[in-house]
Design a protein that fits this description.
The chain has about 280 residues and is an alpha+beta fold. It contains nine helices and eight strands.
Length: about 280
């Protein structure tokens, strides 16, 4: 039993050692540079990127920079830079700034916004949490009014699926716009996202209808088909709760901080010795 336990412990240690070793990218004068170091380096310049997602050349560049940084650090230690007045002065400033940052974070962490406060804000500002009305439309864009009228004449007698199918066919064949190859599909959009003339004509349509007159814009003449409409919807409280709490917390923190500053100034001995008044 003891022998088995000993073997198990040794195996566990070997596996653990192997895992740690696999995280080491390079060793410089006995100091290990790990994937964690590399990730922290990448995060400083590209917060949305991770080291493991970088291409091989970029990974090698990061590794070389980390090697250089380690060598610079060692040289600075050899030259006893930390004993110089310049270093001590900068360190004092950095420590003071860091202390303020940590203190600020602690004040923010102490700021509490209850669920009931967040819900009350949501109810009071319900109009701010509504998704706009949107539509799904297609169009055929041509250069002249005559061609647009000819297309409308061909489409007018059709209804339902036959109208949609023919519209897509004509869009692919005749539309000069970039959406032509997609059957004129413009996707989903809200009011105000299209140029005024187009928007006015499109929003006047019922689902399954086309414009019976060419719609002129700066791009040419459009024939529009309304594929669908989505009514305005209220975003559920549960979907925005965390954002509301974060926003209210930040506002409350700012108010608390302003009051703290006011109190601190009132108690402090402040002597303004500046020459400008």
């Amino acid at each position: 039993m003891k022998k088995a336990l000993k073997i198990s412990l040794i195996s566990s240690m070997l596996i653990s050692s192997s895992l740690v070793a696999s995280n080491v990218l390079v060793t410089v004068n006995g100091h290990d540079i790990t994937t964690k170091d590399a990730q922290e380096f990448v995060a400083q310049t590209s917060p949305n990127m991770t080291y493991d997602r970088l291409p091989p050349k970029a990974k090698e560049m990061v590794k070389q920079r980390l090697i250089e940084n380690e060598l610079f650090k060692e040289q600075a230690q050899k030259d006893k830079i930390e004993d110089t007045p310049e270093f001590k002065e900068l360190l004092s400033k950095v420590k003071a700034k860091l202390a303020v940052n940590v203190w600020m974070k602690k004040q923010l962490d102490k700021t509490v916004v209850s669920d009931s406060e967040a819900k009350a804000f949501y109810d009071k500002n319900i109009d701010k949490f509504k998704k706009p009305e949107t539509m799904h439309a297609r169009h055929i864009l041509v250069k002249d009014e005559k061609t647009a009228n000819e297309i409308i004449k061909e489409l007018k007698p059709l209804k339902g699926d036959k109208l949609k199918e023919k519209f897509i066919e004509l869009a692919k064949a005749k539309s000069v716009g970039p959406t032509g190859k997609k059957g004129g599909d413009l996707g989903t959009f809200a009011k105000g996202q299209m140029v005024p003339e187009f928007s006015k004509a499109a929003w006047a349509l019922n689902v399954g209808e086309i414009t019976t007159k060419p719609v002129k814009t700066q791009f040419g003449y459009h024939v529009i088909y309304l594929e669908g409409k989505n009514n305005s919807e209220t975003i559920p409280y549960s979907d925005v709760k965390d954002k509301i709490i974060a926003s209210l917390k930040q506002k409350q923190f700012a108010l608390n901080l302003a009051q703290m500053v006011k109190d601190m100034k009132a108690k402090a001995k402040i002597e303004d010795k500046s020459t400008t008044k």
